[in-house]
TrEMBL record:
GO terms for cellular component: plasma membrane. GO terms for molecular function: ABC-type transporter activity. It comes from the Archaea. This is Putative ABC-2 type transport system permease protein. The keyword Membrane applies. Keywords: Membrane, Transmembrane, Transmembrane helix. The chain crosses the membrane at residues 7-29, 35-59, 71-92, 160-183.
Length: 189
């Protein structure tokens, strides 16, 4: 986890530094606070996939199978999930895929909440999904993510508390499941 924190820290520092160097904007303590929260949110989001990887490596017993399963899950959750959900929503509502009306958009928005990308995207940018096909009704939240300086952090926490809970508890659940799976495998050998 320390390596993951180091990677996220270096990535955030490099990207923010490059952006600030290119624009020449001076950063205040208020903005640094939001950048730190962004780094923590990114760490939590990436730790979900680390937890999935650890769980798969324990369950599959093979490093190559674990890698293949992990990449397949990552591709489905991050890239293809939005498109799959959009197709399922149009099939359930009976509306054509590209002719979205409110029932299709509402169903798509509800089903998008099953992916961690939805919770990360909403807390960071206020957009319900980054994945392809992740078209849904815009949230009714007043702020547009962590970098919306028009609202306080207290207001941001009030609006996105459910997303924060998912981002915090999902890695914990995955690490506990990995630990239990490891103990069961260790005892049965």
């Amino acid at each position: 986890m320390a390596t993951l924190a180091l990677v996220v820290g270096i990535a955030v520092i490099a990207s923010v530094g490059t952006m600030l160097f290119g624009t020449g904007v001076q950063v205040s303590l208020f903005q640094l606070e939001r950048i730190l929260i962004f780094a923590i949110l990114t760490f939590l989001y990436i730790s979900i996939f680390v937890g999935i990887g650890i769980f798969l490596s324990i369950v599959s017993k093979s490093a190559s199978n674990s890698l293949i399963y992990g990449i397949a899950i990552w591709l489905n959750v991050v890239v293809a999930f939005g498109a799959i959900i959009a197709v399922i929503a149009s099939m359930i509502t009976g509306q054509p895929f590209l002719d979205f009306d409110n029932p299709t958009l509402e169903l798509n928005a509800k089903m998008q909440k099953f992916t961690p990308l939805h919770h990360y995207a909403e807390t960071v940018s206020g957009v319900p999904s980054f994945s392809w096909g992740g078209i849904s009704i815009q949230s009714s939240k007043l702020s547009s993510g962590i970098f919306d300086t028009g609202n306080s952090l207290d207001k941001w926490i009030q609006e996105y508390w459910s997303n924060l809970i998912v981002l915090i508890t999902l890695p914990i659940i995955l690490f506990i499941a990995s630990f239990v799976a490891f103990l069961r495998k260790d005892i049965t050998l």
